[in-house]
Inverse folding.
């Protein structure tokens, strides 16, 4: 056995050398593991916000929200899921997210994307024949004596609405197909919209709302059909305040804007489909007045893709007489039904921005 007496300096060098092997990789490892949050957000194509006062923040990607508190190893995913992961830290250079946490949140976002793209379906369709009961809607009256001819919007809307409703029921027995009235009664506008808004929907489910009306004009020559959707410039509050308890107040406007955009896009797409469906079944000499954007009450308050169809003008005699013909109403309802069907088939097979 040989005893080697080490010189103190030599020993120090050895320790230093050993330490450098241990420490340098640690530093490198550390540098790899923590990603600046801004970089992580860019990778996710997300936005993030941090409030140094409360030391809380959020990461928002599409509609998926992740909330965090600095140095706290729990993240809130969406409304009620918790993720236990290494905390976001704040060093002198700003906020950093550990790589393992980055990966866990990436997995969450991917999962949410998958949920949205896989078997997205229209769970319910609500057909809303306008007016009814005490409210006849627009009225067209022509001639006199025994030639007197009168037509009411509420009757046309009901006939077409019921036909569209039963065709949809036949085609999609597994979907909830609802009609706001199937007789000459008057549900209030609130009642019509509530019927839609109280429906329980799964995360991948949507509901569409189609209101059916007929037009009137002082210009007796005005005729033709048109489809209305919500004006995209109109900012409605889509999210129910009650449902959003616990979400940062600053997040709500962002979420609202995004939901708004989504529904508007889908409403426009639904409106386009219905319009082209009608164009195909109606004779080419019936004027196609195109897509219109407005802030209709029924459409505005419906928190879903929703459109309003104007079948024609009861104030134009030739059109009023067409609208009194069951065969013409049948081609109108067929056109609407085909348009809704095309929309559903497209929507359920390819979720995303349907206009692109
Ligand atoms: Zn009307």
């Amino acid at each position: 056995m040989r005893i080697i007496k080490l010189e103190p300096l030599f020993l120090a060098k050895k320790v230093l050398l050993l330490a450098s092997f241990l420490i340098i990789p640690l530093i490198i490892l550390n540098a790899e593991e923590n990603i600046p949050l801004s970089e992580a957000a860019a990778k996710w194509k997300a936005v993030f916000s941090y409030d140094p006062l409360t030391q809380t923040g959020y990461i928002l990607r599409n509609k998926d929200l992740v909330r965090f508190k600095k140095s706290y190893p729990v993240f809130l995913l969406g409304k009620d899921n918790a993720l236990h992961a290494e905390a976001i830290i704040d060093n002198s250079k700003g906020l950093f997210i550990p790589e393992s946490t980055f990966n866990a949140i990436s997995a969450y976002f991917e999962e949410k994307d998958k949920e949205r793209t896989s078997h997205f379906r229209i769970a319910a369709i609500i057909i809303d024949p306008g007016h009814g009961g005490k409210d006849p809607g627009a009225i067209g009256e022509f001639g006199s004596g025994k030639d007197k001819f009168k037509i009411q919007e509420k009757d046309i809307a009901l006939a077409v609405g019921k036909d569209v409703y039963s065709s949809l029921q036949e085609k999609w027995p597994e979907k909830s197909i609802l009609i706001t009235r199937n007789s000459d009664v008057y549900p209030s506008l609130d009642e019509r919209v509530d019927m839609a808004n109280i429906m329980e929907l799964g995360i991948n489910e949507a509901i569409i709302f189609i209101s059916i009306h007929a037009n009137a004009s002082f210009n007796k020559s005005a005729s033709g059909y048109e489809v209305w959707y919500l004006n995209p410039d109109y900012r409605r509050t889509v999210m129910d305040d009650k449902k959003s308890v616990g979400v940062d107040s600053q997040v709500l406007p962002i979420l609202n804007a995004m939901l708004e955009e989504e529904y508007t896009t889908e409403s426009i797409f639904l409106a386009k489909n219905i319009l082209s469906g009608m164009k195909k079944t109606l004779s080419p000499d019936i004027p196609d007045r195109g897509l219109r954007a407005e802030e209709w009450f029924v459409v505005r308050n419906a928190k879903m893709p929703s459109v309003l169809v104007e079948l024609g003008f009861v104030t134009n005699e030739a059109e009023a007489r067409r609208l009194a013909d069951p065969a013409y109403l049948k081609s109108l309802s067929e056109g609407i039904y085909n348009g809704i069907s095309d929309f559903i088939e497209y929507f359920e097979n390819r979720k995303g921005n349907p206009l692109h």
Summary: Residues 127 and 210 are 5 Å apart (CA to CA). The chain has two domains: 34-116, 120-349. Residues 120-349 form a domain with the Aminopeptidase fold (CATH 3.40.630.40).
